Amino acid sequence: MTGHNCPLCAEPYDDRNGLRVHLEVEHRKSEIVTTLIDLNAAGSDRAADGDRTTVGDEPPAPPV
Ligand SMILES: [Zn+2]
């Protein structure tokens, strides 16, 4: 197993430099950012989907 594949389109590349050139040529930076954000969002989607109805969480009364 000598080859690698682009994480975005599975295009094979030989080394880090090959991947970098491929990303710069075949993929826009915005596309890479979007992909990374989508991956991150997919991972943290459940956490963000939790109950945000913490209305009754009132702060403790000040000791006056
Ligand atoms: Zn690619």
Describe the structure.
- With 64 residues, the chain is mostly helical.
- The chain has a domain of 37 residues.
- It is built from three helices and two strands; from the N terminus they run ββααα.
- A two-stranded antiparallel ribbon has the order 1-2.
- The longest helix is centred in the middle third of the chain and has 15 residues.
- It is rod-shaped and about 70 Å long.
- The structure holds zinc ion.
Structure summary:
By secondary structure, the chain is mainly alpha-helical. Helix content is 47%, strand content 6%. It has helices at residues 16-26, 29-43, 45-48, and strands at residues 4-5, 12-13.
Going by helix content, strand content and strand pairing, the class is mainly alpha
Tell me the number of helical segments per DSSP (H or I, 4 or more residues long).
3
Task: Tell me which ligands are bound.
Answer: zinc ion
Portion of residues within helices: 40-55%
Give the amount of beta strand, in percent: 5-15%
For the CA atoms, what is the radius of gyration? 22 Å
Spatial sequence of strands, sheet with the most strands: 1-2
Overall 3D shape: rod-shaped
Count of beta strands: 2
N-to-C SSE series? Answer: EEHHH
Cα(first) to Cα(last) distance is: 71 Å
Query: What average pLDDT do the residues reach?
Result: 82
Q: Which regions have little confidence, pLDDT < 50, spanning 5+ residues?
A: none
